[in-house]
Structure formats: C-alpha cells, structure tokens
Design goal:
Helices cover about 55% and strands about 20% of the residues. It has helices spanning about 30-40, 65-80, 85-95, 95-105, 110-115, 120-135, 135-145, 150-160, 165-180, 185-195, and strands spanning about 5-15, 15-20, 25-30, 45-55, 60-65. The mean pLDDT is about 90.
C-alpha cells in the first residue's frame, strides 16, 4: 500500500495531479477540497496522503491533503453500502471534512445530496449508516459540543477507518487519555494501536 507521496507537481488539474517522485510520474485522483487546500502549480513540491484502490482491471491512486480527508474517504467506501471511490471523491469535492461531519450529525441530507452523482436516497443511507451502524456521528457531535477533543475524535475516525470496531477504538483511546489528556492525534493513534494489537 502506498501511504503517501511527496513529489513535484508535473501536471495540475482540479481532479487529478501528476506527481514526479524521483523520476516516476504518479497520476493521483483528488477531490476539489484537496485541490483548493494545496493550490498546486507545476514545479511545486507537495505531499499527498494516498489510498490505492485495486480492482480486477485497474489500480487507481487517490490523494488527499489531510489524514482526515483520507479517513472520511475510507469510511465512506468501506462502511457505507453502495458508495464507491468515485462517489466518495464527489462528496469530498462538494463538502470539506468539517461540513461533512456537520451534515451527518445534523442529518442534513440535502447538503450531502448536492454532490455530483449523489441522490437523496444515497445521502439518506450515508447519514443512517454513519449514525447507526458505525456510530461516529455521536463522536462528531460531542466534538462540536466541546465534550471531546478534536484529537480524540480524529483518532477515533482514523482507527475506525483502519478497520477497528468503534467500541474497541473508544476504549483504547479512553485508556490513553486518562494517562495523557493532552495527547495529540498521532500519539493517540499510536498508543491505541499498541493497546489494540
């Protein structure tokens, strides 16, 4: 798996970047939110968090400006039925991470349905499955209300995106937060992975 790429922008289009990494050109599909965050120009050095999606007849590399964007992408394609990479990219192109979390927490189906290729029924399924099956909406709501730290909420999202059950991730995070309440997202993820291993 390719976790990230750091290289020079060879071509920059709103939905696709070609990165020259030590003489190898990687074509990376990106959401508009990543393009806006990076504002890439040819010759600029950028770092992208990546997800390699492998199908029978092709391999597609998706890139993101932040870990949170990649985590939302993975959450959508792995935990919401009927959502593929193209739809997940369309959702992230229409909503940044904060707006997406807010839409799920508030049940704002219309905001999610504005993304290209996402209808009302698909948006309803996203809200329903992320609220009820995965349960991350409660964590995002607690973050908005200030009862949980942004670092803890981001760490929980990352652990769920990596395939851990939310209840296990939450227990591991709570145990580490008792020892170190001001831990960063990276520290929380590393400590929780040690506890979950």
């Amino acid at each position: 798996m390719i976790a990230f790429l750091r290289g020079t922008v060879a071509e920059a289009l709103p939905r696709c970047l070609v990165l020259d990494v030590n003489g190898v050109g990687y074509e990376v599909n990106i959401p508009l939110s990543t393009f806006d965050a990076l504002n890439p120009v040819e010759g600029q050095t950028v770092t992208l968090r990546t997800h390699l999606h492998i199908r029978e007849n092709m391999q597609v590399l998706y890139g993101f400006a932040t870990d949170a964007e990649r985590d939302i992408f993975r959450l959508l394609i792995e935990h919401v039925s009927g959502i593929g990479p193209a739809t997940a990219i369309a959702i992230l192109s229409g909503l940044n991470v904060a707006a997406f979390k807010s839409a799920v927490v508030g049940g704002d189906v219309q905001a999610i349905a504005r993304a290209k290729g996402v209808g009302k029924k698909t948006a309803e399924r996203i809200v329903l499955e992320l609220k009820d099956k995965v349960g991350l909406a409660a964590t995002w709501q607690a973050q908005q209300q200030g009862t949980t730290s942004p670092a803890a909420a981001d760490a929980e999202l990352a652990l769920v995106a990596l395939g851990f059950k939310q209840t296990d991730a939450r227990k591991a995070l709570a145990a580490h937060l008792k020892e170190n309440p001001s831990a960063s997202t990276d520290e929380l993820i590393r400590a929780s992975l040690r506890r979950l291993a």
